[in-house]
Amino acid sequence: MSVCKTYWIKMCLIIIMLYISHSSAFLNKVKHRTFRTSVISNADVEELWFTQRLDHFNGADGRLWKQRYFINDTMYKTGGPVFLMIGGEGPANPAWMQYGTWLAYAQKLGALCVMLEHRFYGKSHPTEDLSTTNLVYLSSKQALADLAHFRTVLADKMGLTRSKWVAFGGSYPGSLATWFRLKYPHLVHAAIASSAPLHAVLNFPEYLEVVERSLATHSPECPLLVKNASDTLVDMLKDSKNYDKISKDFRLCETLQIQSDMDLAYFLEVLAGNFMDVVQYNDDNREFEGVRGTNITIKVLCGLMSDMSLGTPYDRYASVVHLMLNTFAQKCLDVSYDTYRREMSNSSWDGPASGGGRQWVYQTCAEFGFYQSTDSPNQPFTGFPLHFISGTL
What we know:
The protein is an alpha/beta fold. Helices cover 42% and strands 11% of the residues.
């Protein structure tokens, strides 16, 4: 067996072990405001633009648009592979062209590194706005066709038709990497997919089961304390006389108003989202992206939940919110379902959810599901079953 083949096998095994050791939970992206957004802007990485078809599957539609991509050729050696990092449900971050484990692989193998931004995310705007009429062109099928066309044209242009192309991605981009290899095996030699869900499922209660197990890795008591706090809050919410206290305890932007089941479920889901988000990104080693909050880990959250000096589990649950607000420089927590719905309904590229929230909700609604409900008894939260989540879309 050649050294190169041995290296690839070892690298794939490493990826598999990482996949097993971390939760395979999919990102809780229904709430746009919980996204971890990158703030880094790397002026040393040139923005490049590639001409794509709006609709790859309608020969009569000749509309074109510009898709953003990046290249790092500093490690490339003639005959080396091409590493294609697939963009996902947010802006493509140029920091990946200078940081990340994939560059260590590129250094060893003399690879050319390329990153392609996903249509309808970041600066890759195929249409004039994000109306549902235009979002019909946002799909994994179109994204895979983008990858195939990009790979074919770039290979011809740069003399890379004989090179082995390897697709990289994590979470949804990991799914795309896998599907790219399956659908276009003549174009991509291998796919490195981390935490990539491959089968669409509407109701995904297993997500919160993974959250519980992840919290329990710190201590068996941690998820029990979270459940105690969540249950206490739900009991308090049954009496509107407690709303002023709850609003103060959780630093809400406005006094809590529960006028519908949606209002209640949305409030509870926002609070649970703090734990879901931290578990998803626990110790993910992405500080180079300029992401805030990477210092908040499962250990930190469970440390707060077990700190008796902070009061009851309910009080500690509120302390988690305070930590998040302070970390993300927010004065208060907006739990208004009407505000959420209004933001998500804005179809402008300048809208509050245009960074990825509106687009991803559309994709989950049209293709994937992956809705993280509380329908399983084997998790610590309550109050947002599937019919609430599907009702918000």
